[in-house]
């Protein structure tokens, strides 16, 4: 199993996409091991085509669909085309892949309500929630150091 997890579609060391057949075999093995162990596992397979800007832009969606279908056939429960943000492409991927689709909420991506309307089954906030909490913590610590209100009330709270 790759050291970075079985759901990752690319190798972070080389920044190259993994061979789709090898990755599908790995995912099928994870599914089989979970069944054998009696573990009710949700297997969410990342599709890194857009993350790695793989190949010509006009062929990326088709490659993402191809990889997602292959992983679904290997037994994954859902697919995660990380950084895919174009609404039309999301709608197409949802329509062409027989699996729930997971999308990363981030700046430039459609809002959660729009993603739901596009057929997205799951939204991931990734490190965005952590980053927001960390930023707020930094603000609060600065207020404490400055002797200001940590929990402002009234107009300044807005």
Structural account:
This protein is mostly helical and 158 residues long. The protein is 44% helix and 10% strand. The chain has five helices and six strands. The protein has helices at 20-37, 57-73, 87-96, 112-117, 128-146, and strands at residues 10-11, 16-17, 44-46, 78-80, 102-104, 122-124. The protein has a two-stranded antiparallel ribbon. A hairpin with a 4-residue loop joins strand 1 (10-11) and strand 2. Helix 1 runs parallel beside helix 2 and helix 2 (57-73) runs parallel beside helix 3 (87-96). The relative contact order is 0.10. The model has no long low-confidence stretch (mean pLDDT 90).
Task: Name the descriptors.
elongated; 158 residues; two-stranded parallel ribbon; 10% strand; 6 strands; 5 helices; two-stranded antiparallel ribbon; mainly alpha
What are the SSEs and their pairings?
Elements: E1 10-11, E2 16-17, H1 20-37, E3 44-46, H2 57-73, E4 78-80, H3 87-96, E5 102-104, H4 112-117, E6 122-124, H5 128-146
Parallel strand pairs: 3-4, 5-6
Antiparallel strand pairs: 1-2
Brief description of this entry?
The chain is mainly alpha-helical and 158 residues long. It contains five helices and six strands, in the order E-E-H-E-H-E-H-E-H-E-H.
As residue ranges, the low-confidence spans are none
The helix-strand sequence is: EEHEHEHEHEH
Provide the gyration radius in Å: 19 Å
Query: What share of the residues lie within helices?
Result: 40-55%
What is the terminal-to-terminal distance? 48 Å
């Amino acid at each position: 199993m790759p050291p970075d997890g079985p759901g990752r579609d690319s190798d972070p060391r080389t920044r190259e996409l993994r061979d789709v057949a090898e990755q599908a075999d790995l995912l099928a093995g994870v599914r089989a091991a979970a069944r054998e162990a009696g573990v009710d596992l949700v297997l969410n397979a990342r599709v890194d085509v857009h993350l790695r800007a793989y190949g010509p832009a006009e062929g990326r969606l088709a490659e993402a669909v191809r990889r997602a279908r292959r992983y679904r056939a290997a037994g994954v429960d859902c697919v995660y085309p990380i950084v895919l943000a174009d609404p039309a492409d999301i709608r197409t991927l949802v329509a062409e892949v027989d699996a729930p689709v997971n999308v990363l909420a981030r700046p430039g991506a459609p809002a959660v309500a729009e993603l739901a309307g596009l057929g997205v089954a799951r939204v991931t906030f990734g490190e965005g929630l952590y980053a927001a909490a960390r930023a707020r913590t930094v603000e609060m610590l600065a207020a404490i150091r400055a002797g200001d209100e940590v929990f402002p009330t009234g107009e300044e709270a807005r």
